[in-house]
Amino acid sequence: MSSAAGISRAEVANLARLARIEMSDIELDHLASELGIILNAVAKVSEVATADIEPTSHPLAMVNVFRKDEIRPSLTAQEALSGAPAQEESRFKVPQILGDE
Known about the structure:
Elements: H1 9-18, H2 25-48, H3 77-81, E1 87-88, E2 91-92
Antiparallel strand pairs: 1-2
Helix pairs in contact: 1-2
């Protein structure tokens, strides 16, 4: 059984063998058909794509917006730790969840 895109049942069987995947005859036939559909869809997209169209990852132009990296007033270590249930050496103290391993 060969699909319109040219992938045969034998090629699917060879790929399955290389990937060490056991497949029944029914699965091989079905997958050859499904892969043929996928390859046909990719071929249609390839027909539309032309050399004068730049590849993109998003349909709209995207630009990152960055702010200046400025120092701003913020909490001191003591202010940040003031509401902590436990602290040790100017750090939050949390219960150990992993062993010493």
